[in-house]
């Protein structure tokens, strides 16, 4: 099977070309592909399929030609992935599978249709405006940390670390605890501290994240958008620009009255073929 490997600020993906939806993609195969020792290794799989050819996106085929069929590393589905969408768009353009309509390229996801803009090495995607809707808590290593629930097409819990708790010292080799009544489908948990001012931004946050289905990752695009919304709220603003530094680099989040733009680098690093029989044996 052919594949491409790509990443957005270290959030990495295996992309599988399947334009007509003929690939028998299973949770077991996804998990085997994402295995970093016995497979290719990734935080998730992006199947490149035409919207009209997948049952989850057929209703969006009139708005977007391509559907980002995103799977977490453990073989579960996710509604949306901001970095994945940016890498997906890079793949479409580099392989001449799509041409932006005007200045933007529409892309179907399980969270609806998003738009993408490409400027050099940077790819930006426009998603729904983050909805900050509740307070909750996360537990980690004996700590109970207050947080803010945010919906950006998928669920997030943003926890601002109190004084005396260092971001780098958090042990994210284990999953944080959360309230299943608030997050019945699980949640991505972001831990943040304020950063020094950055030119042309309204706020600056440093972030680490534990993603449901993928564990700690070097970056999370929708998580950065959730963090941006909370940082702006704490600064007394409804809109603005936030720099979000993750272990894999920097993302820029722009929250407008009606949407949220996520911008950063999107890179394709390799193409090749994988022997499915060896993955089956490993799985």
TrEMBL record:
Major place of residence: cytoplasm
Binding site for substrate: 11, 72, 82-83, 154, 188, 211-212, 221-222
Pathway: Amino-acid biosynthesis; L-lysine biosynthesis via DAP pathway; DL-2,6-diaminopimelate from LL-2,6-diaminopimelate: step 1/1
Species lineage: Bacteria, Bacillati, Actinomycetota, Actinomycetes, Micromonosporales
Gene Ontology CC: cytosol
GO MF terms, alphabetically ordered: diaminopimelate epimerase activity
Keywords: Amino-acid biosynthesis, Cytoplasm, Isomerase, Lysine biosynthesis
UniProt-annotated site: Could be important to modulate the pK values of the two catalytic cysteine residues, residues: 156, 211
EC nos: 5.1.1.7
Catalytic activity, reaction form: (2S,6S)-2,6-diaminopimelate = meso-2,6-diaminopimelate
GO aspect biological process, one term: lysine biosynthetic process via diaminopimelate
Top EC class of this enzyme: isomerase
InterPro entries: DAP_epimerase_AS, DAP_epimerase_DapF
Gene3D superfamilies registered for this protein in UniProt: Diaminopimelate Epimerase, Chain A, domain 1 (3.10.310.10)
Known role: Catalyzes the stereoinversion of LL-2,6-diaminopimelate (L,L-DAP) to meso-diaminopimelate (meso-DAP), a precursor of L-lysine and an essential component of the bacterial peptidoglycan.
Name of this protein: Diaminopimelate epimerase
Protein's cellular compartments: Cytoplasm
């Amino acid at each position: 099977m052919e594949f491409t490997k790509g990443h957005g600020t270290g959030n990495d993906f295996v992309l599988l070309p399947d334009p007509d939806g003929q690939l028998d993609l299973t949770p077991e195969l996804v998990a085997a592909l994402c295995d970093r020792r016995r497979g290719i290794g990734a935080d998730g799989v992006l199947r490149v399929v035409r919207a009209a050819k997948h049952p989850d996106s057929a209703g969006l085929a009139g708005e977007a030609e391509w559907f980002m069929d995103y799977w977490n590393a453990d073989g579960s589905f996710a509604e949306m992935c901001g970095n994945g969408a940016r890498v997906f768009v890079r793949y479409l353009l580099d392989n001449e599978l799509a041409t932006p309509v005007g200045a933007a390229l529409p892309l179907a996801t399980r969270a609806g249709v998003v738009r993408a803009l490409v400027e050099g090495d940077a790819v930006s995607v426009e998603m729904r405006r983050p909805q900050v809707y509740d307070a909750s808590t996360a537990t980690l290593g004996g700590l109970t940390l207050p947080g803010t629930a945010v919906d950006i097409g998928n669920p997030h819990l943003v926890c601002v670390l109190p004084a005396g708790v260092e971001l780098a010292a958090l042990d994210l080799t284990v999953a944080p605890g959360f309230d299943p009544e608030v997050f019945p489908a699980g949640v991505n948990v972001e831990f943040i501290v304020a950063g020094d001012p950055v030119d042309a931004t309204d706020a600056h946050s440093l972030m680490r994240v534990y993603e449901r289905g993928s564990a700690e990752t070097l970056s999370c695009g929708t998580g950065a958008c959730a963090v941006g919304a909370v940082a702006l709220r704490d600064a007394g603003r409804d809109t603005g620009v936030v720099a979000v530094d993750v272990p894999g680099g920097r993302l820029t989040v722009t929250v407008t009255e009606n949407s949220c733009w996520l911008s950063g680098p999107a890179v394709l690093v390799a193409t090749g073929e994988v022997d499915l029989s060896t993955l089956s044996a490993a799985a």
